[in-house]
Amino acid sequence: MSARPYQICTNCIMDTSDPSIVFDERGWCDYCNNFESAIQPYWHPDQKGEDALKLLADKIRQEGKGKDFDCIIGLSGGLDSSYVAYVVKEKMGLRPLLFHVDAGWNTDQAVGNIEKLVDGLGLDLYTEVINWEEMKDLQVAFLRSQIPDQDLPQDAAFFSSLYQFARKYKIKTIITGSNFSTECCREPEEWGGYLGIDKLLFKDIHSRFGKHPLETFPLVDILMSKIFYQRIIGMKVAMPLNMVPFIKKDAEDELERRFGWQGFQHKHHESRFTRFYEDYWLPRKFGFQKRRAHFSSLISTGQMSREQALERISHPEMDEHFLQQEFEYVANKLDLTVNELQEIFDGENKTYRDYRNKRWLIGLGTNVLRWLGLEKRFFR
Length: 380
Hints:
Layout: H1 30-39, H2 47-63, E1 71-74, H3 79-91, E2 96-102, H4 108-121, E3 124-129, H5 132-145, H6 152-168, E4 173-175, H7 199-209, H8 222-232, E5 236-238, H9 248-259, H10 272-286, H11 290-300, H12 306-313, H13 320-333, H14 338-346, H15 359-371
Parallel strand pairs: 1-2, 1-4, 2-3, 4-5
Helix pairs in contact: 3-4, 3-9, 5-6, 5-7, 10-13
């Protein structure tokens, strides 16, 4: 946490818990200024977006001729991936393969949502099950590393499996639920928002704290996905939710009405580990609330008032009894005693800078994408 005087944005609720945040003379933060200058003018969830969506659908359909599937969608059971699956099938008229990665932390609600979408949309689902012993070993290694980026092992499992499967079966288009509507304010890397899958970082942490070799765990480096997969073999990543009206509450209601889909209390709660990490581990060990970024995105896009966000951020999403039960559940699932997990929690906090990494190179690539206008969100 920075020693600078506390300040909070006068427009959203991002504050100096992001040590590098900058405010202008209005008291607006750089996230809000980025939305105003770099996202809002180029974001068209209107007729222009609808026309672009049709062109995108036609292009994907043409490339998918003669294949079993036009594209592939990573499906978690959460709102963004669920709604984009609905849009791709019903609004774009495509033939997607739904791809789910089971990393061992699915909530029953997420599993139920996936089943309802598969049945309701009449689509095929492929589930990749990650070797639990390897997943567990990697997650414990990351916990022992004491860095805030505790969701990196799950992210690596999800995205690496998706890329590897798409390449193996020559599926050229990956559809993602990434969007400006609920994600225009990206949490800073100090809050555990590391800029992608860095194999050097993974290998260093696992070599120090892991106990078992990662023989089958999928690990596609971000530079490999951006350069080899996308630029050399021509794999494309499409974000249709930026081309349609995507209002969180309306999307939840529509999925519930059509499929019986059930909404979550908050973003990322489809994973039991991510829910624990974002609601307990990160705020209590490091003092970071990813909800600040989530709520600030909704403020910028007119889906939540600043007053509503301030009231909600003032208390945890889950009650204390539930969070203590989850602490015990996570410890037991990872084959740690509660005391062992508590000792890790009480350990000295570190950052990715304490380990070998190529953050500078990933940052350079991200800046190039921003300079080219291919990335609108503010990364720091």
